[in-house]
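Changelog-adjacent note: as of this version, every example in the card shows the full chain rather than a window. The one below runs 610 residues end to end.
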Amino acid sequence: MEYYIELKLAGDAYPDGFANGMTLSKAQSSRALKKEDESDEVITYRNYYNHKLCLHKVKKGEALELYTCFANEGNEDATLEMISSFAIRGVKADKIHRMQSFWSAEGKLRTETITDLHLEPSWNRCATRVEKFGTCGSMPVRKYFPFIVLEDSEKGEFLGVQLYAPSSWQIELLVRENETLTVTGGLADYDFGHWSKTVKVGEKFTTPRALVAQGKSIYEVCDKLVKAQTPNISPVDNDMGILFNEYCTTWGNPSFENLKRISDKLKGKGIKYLVIDSGWYGKNEGWWATMGDWDVNEEKFPGGLKETADYIKECGMIPGLWYEIESVGTSSYHFENHEHLLKRNGKVLTVGGRRFWDMEDPWVVDYLTEKVINQLKNSGFGYLKIDYNDTIGIGCDGYESLGEGLRNKVIASQSFIKKISDNVEGIVIENCSSGGHRLEPAMMEIASQASFSDAHETKAMPIIAANLHRVIPPQQTQIWAVMRKSDDTDRIYYSIVNTFFGRMCLSGDIYDLSDEQWALIDDGIAFYNKAADIIKNGMTVLCQSDPVSYNRPTGEQVLIRKLGNRELVIAHRFENSEEIDKSFLNGKKIIAEYGRVDKDFSAKAWILEE
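Full-length structure tokens:
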């Protein structure tokens, strides 16, 4: 197995072997690279244009971080059409593991063999076989996560890769000369994501990062990749504090009166954050219509938001506020403010009822500084939920290619989010994008938490939550438990047990619950607090999940997470289920247990000690 660089420069020959149009790898630009130097930290190449390319290798825990730096030391400007963040050749594997993702159906593990993918080499080794996948747009976790694991089942060896990819990305598998695989990835190239980048003489370009890890199981590899991530957890948020988000209580219609009522009900319940979700602004046209104006609706909040935030704090909780900072709705004053909105091919970019701020525009930055940062500071909010409910798509104007326009606008969005952190002391930021469309390391590292999904009340919640252990830290994975006054004991157990996969977030008919229902929730909160350190610091060693369908899950699921001599075990039964095999209890002391798993759609969790 060898790390190296793939490159395609405009003007160089495209790859042969019937590959042109499927891949830009193996082109003339890559073949022209000559290795100059190699150490444990960097491999240096140069080509006949006198371009210097460095593949950097940085140890990150038990993973390796890779990225490529292109330096134009030649005599003419160079246009990149593809450059790899990582490229690895000589990989022996017979199975490929990917994670598929759609709205409210995030993280489905897809396992295929090399023969399933039709990646056996041709009889005379002249034809390139290619499997290419990725995402175009500003929702990087849509269709696939930027993640792959290659398995050699004969040797029991696994190789995993995860990209830092906040915008368009790609991963490729290639076979040609022999039975081994080449795997490459990085920014979506010119063919796939309309990306090209002109690097002037004397300038440099650095790719996004990739994490690579090896291990003896998919669990070990995923744990190494996840623990190599470096999220910016607010110091305020290091204790696995519990949230209440009122969206599934008011459905986008919060007010001072209903927030006061919720605060009174939650006082003393051990809830750390109370988050005001969408609908606190505008003139009651619908929460989505006036995004972009961010004028407080004084019919709902007379005198502004400060009184509500103060009341939440008086009840012992940190107040939070929802924004979709990058979007502008159809009823916004700014929907026709074309000067400051993104365009494609000279026309304002409209997606359904949304347009998008140009986050590189100084006017926009100043405007959002006043409307977002100053609102948070002046009203005393300590928590910010950043939502993002549609995608820019393949790109926008402003640079030499649509893809490069997209890349820069998303980087500008990230810069503004970092500005919020820098200017609002201790702010806890939640990364949300219609639930889970931005669950990748580059966005996760500038947030404390993330919404795991919008599947708030579906039967598939525990499947999605368990799947996400493979790609993001459970400490950051915010799992909703929506309480309804009609919920029986089994439904409450099912909902609360789901939150043990990550961060507990409550919502729903909070002031209509009986004392008996509240007693079950209180017991669940107590169990969560006992399990919090295992959730935060443990390693997931088993995720045995039978369901194929998310809409109608069948069978059973068991997840085990270990920390030292303790284990958190979470078991669910779905439709047509069988009794859970409880052999995991053998030889273990039960420290705590919650729920019951004795029928279809039931759930239970245990904390065990060896």
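Structural remarks: Residues 74 and 310 are 61 Å apart (CA to CA).
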